[in-house]
């Protein structure tokens, strides 16, 4: 194997110091990345984080592996492993301190009530729950208990738009819950979070971030393999444990990135009646393919609002036809 990158790590453990190496190597087109713990008696314990032909997946596995070692106290002898300025050397920002403190507190009862409110609001507005408030934002609300709009504005994530839209309801939900802290939050939170606590939390956040990135890359590979092997949407749903709508969004992203997704598109469009296919094609040529809602109204008219399941199915057809339209258009250039 030809080593193309190597860096040494160290961790103090009492009077001694543990040393290890991270590496990226290549052999006949096969990439590998991993970790070698160098023991005192000169033996090596190796962890292989990745082995394969995908540079994208190798980088994701490498970053997640490095983050997991940073979390348990190892530090690189050469800085800049994950970014130009190592995050453990920066002064913490107030949002980080607020999130760190909130994550360390038990406020499950209040958070459960907020999640219930979020579910109801999600159904009412027909949008994903995380667009209303993320889990971390709900945890901060449950811990800091803002009871005025001004106080709510101090919670990271609640800017002008979100405060105007949901602020009154949130304040009403939290009104009357006893709290033992004051506002402004910055006057006491920085004193309540120790350096060690903040450091541990930041490394955990990095590990989670790169873990999600690695999972996304693996799911992308699985989806591409499924498409190449002729899987249907139903089969892909089951294999990837993904809703049909999210699956279609992922297929669209793959198409935008230049991957060939026509095998699954053409397979699904086999069931589309020729007349309907021509109507969609004509609508795309007339209105363009950027927005789906005008196409929905043009093709399906009043019937597009009959029920949610039918509308989803109509959007699915439009997405598939849009992908095919773009591919045909590109091939003609």
Order of helices and strands: EEEEHEHHHHHHHHHHHHHH
Mean pLDDT over the residues: 89
Percentage of β-strand residues: 5-15%
Give the number of helices. 15
Task: State the separation between the terminal residues, measured CA to CA.
Answer: 43 Å
Q: How much helical structure, as a percent, in the residues?
A: 55-70%
**Order of the strands making up the biggest sheet:** 4-3-2-1-5
Contiguous low-pLDDT stretches (5 residues minimum) are none
Main beta sheet, described?
Answer: 5 strands, antiparallel
Structural category: alpha+beta
Q: How many distinct beta strands?
A: 5
Can you walk through the features of this model?
The protein is α+β, with helices and mostly antiparallel strands and 333 residues long. It has 3 domains: 2-87; 105-190, DNA polymerase, domain 1 (Orthogonal Bundle), CATH 1.10.150; 230-332, no CATH class. Helix content is 59%, strand content 13%. The protein contains 15 helices and 5 strands. It has a 5-stranded antiparallel sheet. Strand 2 and strand 3 form a beta hairpin. It starts with a strand and ends with a helix.
Entry keywords:
alpha+beta, DNA polymerase, domain 1, 5 strands, 333 residues, 3 domains
List the helices and strands and how they pair.
Layout (H helix, E strand, L loop, with lengths): L1 E12 L2 E12 L2 E9 L5 E9 L2 H17 L3 E2 L17 H10 L4 H18 L3 H4 L2 H10 L4 H4 L7 H15 L11 H7 L2 H34 L4 H8 L3 H13 L5 H8 L4 H14 L4 H9 L7 H25 L1
Antiparallel strand pairs: 1-2, 1-5, 2-3, 3-4
Helix pairs in contact: 1-9, 2-5, 2-8, 2-9, 3-5, 11-15, 12-15, 13-14, 13-15, 14-15
